[in-house]
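User: Hey, quick favor. My workstation is busy. Could you predict this chain's structure for me?
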Amino acid sequence: MAVVAARAFPGSAGPEIEALAGTIERVTFHSRETGFCVLKVQARGKRDLVPVIGHAPAIAAGEWITATGIWHTDRQHGVQFKADTLKVTPPTGVEGIEKYLASGHMRGIGPAMAKRIVAAFGEGTFEIIEAEPQRLPEVAGIGPKRAARIIAGWAEQKAVREIMLFLHAHGVGTARAVRIFKTYGHDAIAVMTEDPYRLAKDIRGIGFKTADAIAMKLGLTPEAPQRLRAGISFALQTATDGGHCALPVVELIKLASDLLGVEAAL
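Assistant: No problem, here it is.
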């Protein structure tokens, strides 16, 4: 895509970071592999649909998004909102709920079934699926097997949302968050809590410094064993990048302590 214009702060060369919120009217494109998506959003305060580009592990029409990013103008597609963070929540209104269910996002539900479910449960549809799933067979066409698929699909989407919220809360942008989720799946929170420095080894585009910043936001101390171990590896890589093929232990420890900002005695 060729970007030809972007808004900037007065007197600043950088683009202005703005917020956008609204309902997804249409998912124009979504890659399950990378999470890249192109959306048409009925944004709050905007009359026309807004093209939004960003990343999400799963996305569906009818969902509500809150995003931060920049406006830019593409030669081919015109003005777009390029989201750096993109948070998704289920819709609350009847129309949005039906659109979400009919999108194919939930296993076992098509457009006709979505209409019947919403007609039966209205704005309480998601509460029924989560808290009273035994009521699903009240809807014509839902037997035990279909009900089980619906319940499993809802639980999966809920888990994805919780993981993304956790990652966003600890300073991880949406594109990186998607890569983390694709790598670790439902274990993402456990992996990051136990040893966030695994990110630097396992995730393309995440180095030690990024993993270290995430670790600090997770509450790890500068002297945490995980950090010291990762710091030694980072120091070795730094020395290798500097042309060294070997490094005395004393020099390695000094380099690691300098990079980590801790006492060499640790």
